[in-house]
Design brief:
This protein is mostly beta strands. The protein has a domain at about 90-230. It has three helices and 28 strands. It has helices spanning about 20-35, 215-225, 245, and strands at about 45-50, 60-65, 70-75, 80-85, 90, 105-115, 125-135, 140-145, 155-160, 170-175, 185-195, 200-205, 235-240, 260, 265-270, 280, 300, 310-315, 325-330, 345-350, 355-360, 380-385, 390-395, 400-405, 410-415, 420, 430, 440. The strands form seven sheets. A five-stranded antiparallel β-sheet has the order 1-25-24-23-22, with no helix packed on it. Strands 17-21-20-19-18 form a five-stranded antiparallel β-sheet, with no helix packed on it. The longest helix has 14 residues, at about 20-35. The radius of gyration is 22 Å and the shape is globular. It starts with 20 loop residues before the first helix and ends in a 30-residue tail after the last strand.
Length: about 475
């Protein structure tokens, strides 16, 4: 059985909530009629729940959800374009890196059963990505990688990126033995640079660089003795890009270098593209996070990051350019597992990568709530926006939002596209609307005339809002 991409039919689907609570209540009723009662709050609005166009950075947003459709929405929640059968992840390609082509995206084109994936506990039936590709606005495949990959399958996961030279870097898996590990084979992380003909022209394997990741001897011993074949679990790959550090003479931040983070192993690292060597790391060892207000003061030395996602250098031209931005999940990770706060939440951290200091952060407290009010222990992402706001994907709850530098939420969207199924033990229906990654997409990346709205959405007073009984 394969997963094939098909041509989309664009539509303008309004998912934004009306300003009238009565209509919101009707949306609630429709949700409860079509989805099972959830373990958490089972009735909640979906689509755009608040939006201040004067304070937000107005753009499109791209994400793929449980319906396997790549949705390009405006900030009012209208689905303005779709790429069907996109599997679990999609990425819009910057036209500046793509010969000026507008509306192109990376998606998974084909999946299949994976040889050796039974190495991963709990993923015996895990499917692998056989082919990935670039689609144009109409859904036509204009580039693909898979057939010429090692073993005839891309085995891509989590990330990909177009390079200035026209090639594409692809994050992938490789099942192979790594010297010194207890397990005979590991589910290793590899990077392929692939040319327009779909041929690998450069590659890098994590297992070749274990001694460069910054592990202490006792940590390295635990790492090599792990029972988890997915020992690194790299979940992010980005090009470093032009930056002030390199301009000032720091060769570690060569724009051609690659930055990635390893969730299970709890570190972020930069690969020197010319040699493949690790030239910069953050983690895997961190000082303890101060408790209370001290843990929110900036600047301060980087403290305990755990299970992070989407680490990247903020691009030139954006506020904070050259700093590292990362979604710190505060999820289980590390060798040995790091201590996590019992009632704590996640964080978005902006870090000076040379001083290794936190210079800005977002937590639940930043928006007036308790720390645990912002929490996603896995997946998720964060991106700096041109007006200084930060786009955040709180992936576990399917929530996308924008915050100002002082923590005001000026746009919020809850994913209405649920993945439904059945519990393998009880047979009861299941549903979740988690989002691996959302991506802000500037208007100018889409073809001219792509519809969009910028109508304010004011949320109701939650202390007074009630769901009315059906008539």
């Amino acid at each position: 059985m394969t997963h094939k991409n098909s041509v989309p039919s664009a539509r303008f689907r309004h998912t934004a909530l009306s300003l009238r609570p009565q209509q919101i209540a009707l949306a609630f009723v429709a949700t409860t009629l079509t989805l099972p009662a959830l373990a958490g709050p089972g009735v909640f609005p979906t689509g755009t729940t608040r939006y201040d166009p004067a304070k937000a950075y107005n753009s499109f947003v791209l994400f793929t959800s449980g319906d396997n459709i790549a949705h390009l929405i405006d900030l009012d929640g209208n689905s303005v374009h779709e790429w069907k059968d996109a599997a679990g992840h999609s990425t819009a390609i910057d036209p500046k890196l793509n010969g000026g082509k507008l509306g192109h995206v990376f998606v998974t084109l084909e999946t299949g059963e994976g040889k050796g994936t039974d190495l991963v506990p709990g993923q015996v039936n895990r499917r692998i990505t056989k082919t990935v590709g670039e689609l144009d606005w109409e859904g036509k495949t204009v580039w693909s990688f898979g057939e010429k990959a090692p073993g005839g399958a891309a085995q891509q996961h989590h990330d990909w990126a177009r390079l200035p030279n026209g090639n594409t870097v692809v994050l992938a898996n490789l099942v192979h033995p790594v010297k010194g590990f207890k397990l005979p084979q590991l589910l290793d992380d590899v990077i392929y640079e692939v040319n327009p003909a779909g041929e690998v022209v450069w590659q890098w394997k994590g297992g070749d660089h274990v001694n460069e990741f910054g592990f202490k001897p006792d940590q390295l011993k635990l790492l090599r003795a792990t029972e988890d074949p997915d020992y690194l679990h790299v979940n992010n790959l980005k090009v470093v890009g032009p930056n002030r550090w390199f301009d000032a003479g720091d060769k570690r931040f060569d724009p051609e270098n690659l930055i990635f983070d390893a969730r299970n192993a709890n570190f972020i690292a930069i690969i020197e593209k010319k040699t493949g060597k690790i030239v910069w790391t953050l983690g895997p060892s961190f000082p303890k996070t101060p408790r209370g207000p001290e843990g929110r003061k900036v600047p301060r030395p980087v403290d305990q990051i755990a299970g992070q996602h989407d680490a990247h250098i903020i691009p030139d031209g954006l506020p904070g350019a050259g700093n590292l931005l990362v979604f710190d999940n505060q999820g289980q990770s590390g060798y040995p597992p790091v201590a996590l706060p019992i009632t704590g939440g996640s964080r978005v951290l902006e870090i000076d990568p040379v001083k290794k200091e936190v210079v800005w952060q977002y937590t639940g407290e930043s928006s007036g709530g308790p720390g645990w009010s912002f929490r996603s222990t896995h997946i998720s992402a964060a991106r700096r926006l041109p007006n200084g706001n930060t786009f955040i994907d709180e992936g576990q709850s399917g929530r996308l939002f924008q915050v100002t530098p002082d923590g005001e939420i000026v746009w919020e969207y809850v994913n209405p596209y649920f993945r439904t199924g059945k519990d393998p033990v009880t047979g009861k229906p299941t549903a979740n609307n988690q989002l691996y990654r959302g991506q802000p997409v500037p208007y100018e990346w889409a073809p001219a005339g792509t519809p969009r709205a910028e109508k304010p959405v004011v949320p109701p007073d939650l202390s007074k809002f009630r769901v009315n009984s059906a008539p």
